[in-house]
Amino acid sequence: MFYHIHPIASVFEQLDTCETGLSAQNAEKRQKRYGPNTLPESQKRSFHTIFFNQFKSPIIYVLLIAVLVSIVIREFTDAYFILGVLMINALIGTYQEYSAAQKADTLKQIVKTFARVVRDTSVQHIESSELTLGDLVLLESGSQVPADLRLISTDELFVNESLLTGESIDVKKDAEFLSIDEELPVADRINMAYAGSFVSKGRARGIVTAISLDTEIGKIAELLAGVSQQKPPLVIRMEKFSLNIAKVIGVIVVTLIGLGIYHNMELTKLFFLVVALAVSSIPEGLPVAITVALSAASSAMSKRNVIVRELSSIEGLGSCTMIASDKTGTLTQNKLSVVAFVTPDRAYENGMSPPDDVLRCATLCNESVINTDGKEPVFLGDQVDIALARYAQALQSEMSTLREASILVSQFPYEPIHAYAASTYQKGLFYIHYLKGSAEAVLRQCSISEAKKQSAYVQIEEWASKGYRTIAFATKENQQSIIEQKDYTYLGFAAIIDPLRDGVVDAVQMAQDAGICVAMITGDHPETAYHIAKELGIAIDKEEVINGKEIELWLERGGIAKEIAHKRVFARVSPEHKQRIVIAFQSLGHFIAVTGDGVNDAPALKFANIGIAMGKSGTDVARESSNLILADDSFHSIVNGIEEGRIAYDNIRKVIHLLISTGFAEVVLVILSMLFIVPIPLLPVQLLWLNLVTNGIQDVALGLEKGEPDVLKRRPRDPKERIFNTTMISRVVTGGLYMGVVAFSVFYWLLSLGYGEDTARNITLVLMVLFENVHVFNSRSEKLSIFKIEHRRNYLLIFSVLITQVIHIISLYTPFMQELLHLEPISLKQWSLLLLIALGLVLVMEIEKKIAKR
User: Fold this and answer.
1) Is there a contact between 144 and 134 (Cβ–Cβ < 8 Å)?
2) pLDDT for 226 beyond 50
3) Full-prediction pTM beyond 0.85?
4) Is residue 658 a contact partner of residue 775, using CB atoms and an 8 Å limit?
5) Distances from the Cα of 749 to the Cαs of 24, 674, 752, in angstroms?
6) CB 718: neighbour CB atoms within 10 A?
7) C-beta atoms surrounding 107 within 10 Å
8) Which residue of 211, 255, 494, 709 shows the fewest CB atoms closer than 10 Å?
9) CA-based angle 293:298:304, to the nearest 5?
């Protein structure tokens, strides 16, 4: 029902209620029929659900297949190794996601809301969840509107609907208002009060017309249902990467089986060869390394006020090519502030105090209320009045007691139809009259020459063009106690704005320097939005601005994304508009991070690739729809998060390079043994030792690398870019071929000298350990020379290399490990020669980097 078009009597009839409200018995029946006045909460994932979700990955599936193969051929040691690393990965990932969810929950204020209702003709305080259709609700300053209401009486009622509409200016409500337009925007239905909004001033009575999902908030909540959030880039990339690994392994396995059958190999040896190949090809340590890298980034982001709800969202933030930000509460403070007072002669800025008449007018022609019960004074009322009262008291502290010390004779409250407010105070035998309002309404009542009036208008237009809201002041003194609309003396005007958050200009610039488009999506007026966007550096001219009506026309034309590709300011938009805007830019190839704090932002947060909610000022609906939460509500923290996300992705690439290049070297070993018809250079259990223990320690340390200096100066990665780009392929092939060919040559040479298979394998394994210990330093940067990297930035990596080497040396002398891995000690001369061969890898990779730069 469109209750804003129906008179009050009709509303009573339709809802079967009256001015005295419902009886308790009737209310109970309706509660059973319509249910509680609550929005459904999203189901929390249990610890077990989060744990099992860690196994939903293609690369995990490949590893599980390797486990089954190992069990079939009774290589239980191999199976235990792989299962062990999967469990470690799952436990780390589960802990991080579960603890992140706990952190997000601590941001919620678990406080029950109450409503004042009339039941059985008496006023009662009940929980808002117990409201039902037809209830008579009483509203007063500071209360939250508990359900959608058709107002039946209002007394100077002003409601802040910014969390619902995005508009920061309070709305004056009028129960007598009637509209003939059923589709009238929510913000213009001034005879209605909507759930989730707050009463900033006045009192009212209203009949409950909608509860739960039928409220305007509920409709927005329903927009969130049935649409899953976009997959983060890392998930997409890793799925493709894992699939490609599986395909490559499949092709090589089939080829080797064919070669084995052709060479009449024994089936047992052939099975061992296939297992060796699978173990060589599959980067068993990759899931753990990725989880550790993301966990480290999550911890770093938490310290920088970004709470991560899902680990995969970290790299997603680093991949974003566009940030679509809400204005009110995100870029601005959602708190009106007077920045200057302009008289006909000069502008009083930067804390300069204007004439006393100005401050008296700001204080006495003011309907705001100051609550001094707490430690800090709390201002209640219209936001413009609050801004003026704060302004006056900041400049002269005695203004805080001026109203109580003055004798109020009469007051003419502000009405939109009149566009001004007036008040009269007694001063001995005289009366002082104060006037404030729009420039047109105030100047019309002033005694001022036409030339001075036009000059005043020029001043006002100049400030308005900068995005300021202007409130004109006037005063007069006479012996008349009656407010008359003439003969006032014009004082000037206050320039008011919703100020930007501290540091937000620099943050926007940093995002743009990182190659990220920044757009503003707001329910505010186009002019205000444009000037704020211009100040932020988001928009240069008005061609980049589009308003709600223009968006409607765009949607009617089919919503072609290219038509809005150049727009950076979207004003007077609805929640549905935000969804369509986000979807349009996604179709243009953008990965979008959407920020917001209000209920009206929730659909866009849900549809975005990365949804970022405000932790302090944000609503629960917004937070539940997001991937990340800003604990300090600072736009600058988003940039910090982008930096950490990019660092995490860089580290993941470094780990992948290390694991795949060493894995490729092992595959080369196996293939060369087939081609030259010699025994397998390394047994499956030796390969697992190399990959899961030795390599596993190093890749975890590599995943904790600090960011490179230019991380925020790069252009965003193409969202479609594969992990295995030309740079990665070149480095993997170069390093892998060198290690694989050289290691096989050493193995082949040892066999030709008459060494036994176990001894040759033992020496080859030592060489591969040395190769990986050297290669981890090559993997620290894709561009920087190993000699230009600040190695002290990651002592853990150095420590891991030393530990790796020590562990392997101990294994050479431990009977249990000797038997398990077929090991034996080697001479100091052999150690020296193998180390020299391993260091040759540094020269090879340095040459590759220099060639790649050309």
Assistant:
1) no
2) no
3) no
4) yes
5) 95, 16, 5
6) 13
7) 16
8) 709
9) 130
